[in-house]
Amino acid sequence: KQEVTQIPAALSVPEGENLVLNCSFTDSAIYNLQWFRQDPGKGLTSLLLIQSSQREQTSGRLNASLDKSSGRSTLYIAASQPGDSATYLCAATGGRSGNTGKLIFGQGTTLQVKP
Amino acid sequence: DAGVIQSPRHEVTEMGQEVTLRCKPISGHNSLFWYRQTMMRGLELLIYFNNNVPIDDSGMPEDRFSAKMPNASFSTLKIQPSEPRDSAVYFCASTWTTQGRELFFGEGSRLTVL
């Protein structure tokens, strides 16, 4: 059974700092891993999708990496801005359900970027 | 492009009443998921459909919950009778099973059962 853990639960940084959010998963036979952003009272916005055959994906100031052997993914945010303040969720497919898109979510990391 | 559309956005009802939440997936997507989000339990998968067929409903908490997908562009999640512990935000999401499977979420339906 796939389990996803995110550490830390909350993070506060000054504007301009580079930061890393961590995600770990128990079943390394994943199909893909996805990072989302959730603003208060809103739905989830997909940030990056990493297929199991990939090591990383980049979009603007965001870079996500995937290491299946260690069961870890990181989301790197460069030059953080107050607008980056949100909850970031990591989700992975379980190996046995990987081909269905069934995602298991971590509890999220709530990021606050102070001006 | 229209994203996943959910209605109602907010619902307040009394215990024992029937609640119906609606979802329109992104056109062309063939998988649809219903999730529930609470502070205590985070995001939980309730049920998902592939090509309108329910595949896994092991996350549905009780028989009071039911979901249908009569066609590729519409799904409902029904709670009957509703209870205060059902209060949560219910999200619908959709994807293509043949193209990377990136999951796209709706804005959610916030349910409060008094």
Describe the structure.
- The complex is a heterodimer of chains A (115) and B (114).
- Chain A is built from no helices and eleven strands.
- Chain A has 115 residues and is mostly beta strands.
- In chain B, strand 9 and strand 10 (104-105) form a beta hairpin.
- Helices cover 0% and strands 54% of the residues of chain B.
- Chain B is an all-beta fold.
- Chain B has no helices and eleven strands.
Structural key phrases:
heterodimer, A: 115 residues, mainly beta, five-stranded antiparallel beta sheet, 11 strands, 56% strand, B: mainly beta, globular
Pattern of helices and strands of chain A: EEEEEEEEEEE
- Sheet-strand content of chain A, in percent, reads over 45%
Secondary-structure content class of chain B: mainly beta
Please compute the radius of gyration of chain B using only Cα atoms: 13 Å
Oligomer: heterodimer
Summarize the biggest pleated sheet of chain B: 7 strands, mixed
Rg of chain A is: 14 Å
- In terms of DSSP E residues, the strand content of chain B is over 45%
Major sheet description of chain A? 6 strands, mixed
Number of strands of chain A: 11
Share of residues in helices of chain A: under 10%
Q: What form of chain B results from the Cα inertia axes?
A: globular
Give the overall pLDDT of chain B as a whole number: 93
The helix/strand order of chain B is EEEEEEEEEEE
State the distance separating the first and last CA atoms of chain B.
Answer: 36 Å
Tally of helical runs of chain B: 0
